[in-house]
Specification:
4-stranded antiparallel beta sheet, Rossmann fold, 2 domains, about 230 residues, 8 helices, Arc Repressor Mutant, subunit A
């Protein structure tokens, strides 16, 4: 069963419910919103694996949403599948030029939608595995640019701080870092980290990594290191 997170953006409540039902049935985690403003907000906080985006939205339309998300470092690598009417060919071209990955026209069958989503997610996974900037450790792949972690090919849902912590340690396996060094490396302007909270972050990260959590080793009297 699928486990990826999909953000669905459409102002038609009936269509939202139809898509939500069918994607849930396939095992996807689904979040639905009805405006472009909420789509931008949810995309930045949720960091979904794919966005299903209707072009005809009130206020900020789908093209505006696509342009904003594809220009933001945190969201630019999220695949976007546009939902369009048959008469919106020019908008489809504009969306693809802005960086959208695929489109589907209304009305569509749920089976075709699911098949198209699977195809986009497969392409994303292949691109992620081929990313030369990725940090690869056995069955763990960390993509700095995509702000994404894959464990045995499946995405791991990490907070901003957990991601930065894992990336920092994994870049230099075998090196021991003190808690203060970790704080300096992972803290962001909006994500303050204290030395005491490093232990809490590490514990949460180990739990999310499952059996690979043991790769993050405690160095008594110093701090932590990533196993070589």
């Amino acid at each position: 069963m699928a486990t990826e997170r999909i953000l669905v953006v459409d102002d038609e409540e009936d269509l939202l419910e139809l898509v939500r039902y069918n994607l849930h049935k396939e095992g996807y985690q689904v979040r639905c919103v009805s405006t472009g403003e909420l789509a931008i907000q949810e995309a930045k906080s949720l960091l979904p694996d794919l966005i299903l985006l209707d072009l005809m939205l009130p206020a900020v339309d789908g093209l505006g949403v696509c342009k904003i998300l594809k220009s933001h470092p945190q969201t630019q690598h999220i695949p976007i599948m546009m939902v369009t009417a048959k008469t919106e060919e020019a908008d489809v071209v504009s969306g693809l030029e802005l960086g959208a990955d695929d489109y589907i026209t209304k009305p569509f069958s749920p089976r075709v939608l699911v098949a198209r989503i699977r195809a986009v997610l497969r392409r994303k996974l292949k691109q992620s595995m081929d990313d030369p900037s990725a940090i690869k450790v056995r069955e763990l792949v960390i993509h700095p640019g995509r702000h994404e972690v894959l464990l045995r090919g499946q995405p791991v849902d990490l907070t901003f701080t957990e991601f930065r912590l894992l990336q920092f340690l994994a870049r230099k396996p075998g090196w021991a870092f003190s808690r203060s060094q970790i704080v300096d490396a992972v803290k962001g302007e909006d994500y303050p980290v204290t030395e005491r909270s490093v232990d809490v972050q590490v514990a949460g990260l180990r739990k999310k990594l499952g059996d690979l959590g043991s790769y993050i080793e405690t160095v008594r009297g110093v701090g932590y290191r990533f196993k070589e």
